[in-house]
Amino acid sequence: MSFGIAKNVRSEVRECTPELLNRVLDSVHVARICAEIEDALEKCRKGELTKEEYETIKSELKKKLPIFTFHAMFKKGRRKNDDALPSGLCIYDLDHIPNPRAKWEAIKEHAKELGIVLAHISPSLEGLRLVFIIPTGMTLAKAQAWMAQQLGDTQYDACVKDYARCSFVVPREYVLFLDEEGLFSNDRGEMINDREEVKHPENNYHLSSINYHLEEFPSTYEG
Fold first, then answer.
1. Measured between alpha carbons, how far apart are the two ends of the chain, in Å?
2. How far is CA 122 from the centre of its chain?
3. Residue 3 confidence (pLDDT) above 80
4. What is the pLDDT of residues 7-55, one digit of tens each?
5. Cα–chain center distance at 163
6. Which burial class, exposed, middle or buried, applies to 174 when counting CB atoms under 10 A from its CB (0-12, 13-18, 19+)?
């Protein structure tokens, strides 16, 4: 079960390997683009750029970044849901948070039971992206809803549920956690369904463990 990588959002997708992953994380190009985004953010915070000007600059710069397609590989090389070969991975975004590193500190002790294999700060520096293994039998949408419940997140982005969704590459310094073996494992479907209780990172109660017995992934995806 592979996931894809492409030079940018318009490029043909190819299978990502550990070598390609490490190459792009250490790319001078990626570091430079993200540094320019960070510089624009600082100017916005100082009042030297309007919010609208910053958003335009950020959007144009992100288009120059390589992308991962963590949800799937694509048999014809194009990011079309009809051609998706599901990877068994799911992305989960925590957006518009003032301190992504602190947010991860509150989550990281539960990384293993949540199946998290990658966590990184977003190119905007105002978000945290988690890549996790989908528990057996769940669709993308159900997996994201499950993760939202585990994290106590009532504002999660429910739109991140199509296979063609891309994730912009960031420099290695933005990576907070990487389980390379889990990310490239061929046994992702073997995750235990009867999860241990996960303590909500920011509250003093426990979320209930959940046992899902849902349909398997369909053999074809129809958008």
1. 20
2. 9
3. yes
4. 999 999 999 999 999 999 999 999 999 999 999 999 999 999 999 999 9
5. 12
6. buried
pLDDT of 86 over the 80 cut: yes
Nearest to 116, CA basis, from 126, 106, 203, 16: 106
Q: Could you give the 3-state DSSP secondary structure of residue 81? A: helix
Alpha carbon distance 164, 31 (integer Å): 25
Question: What one-character DSSP code corresponds to residue 133?
Answer: E
- Tokens 């990011």 belong to 79
* Bridge pairing between strands 198-199 and 89-95: unpaired
Give 16's DSSP letter: -
Cα 147 to chain centroid, rounded? 12
Using the CB atoms, write b or e for 130-165: b if 16+ within 10 Å. Answer: bbbbbbbbbbbebbbebbbbbbeeeebeeebbebbb
Task: Classify 63 as helix, strand or coil.
Answer: coil
H or E segment to which residue 152 belongs: none
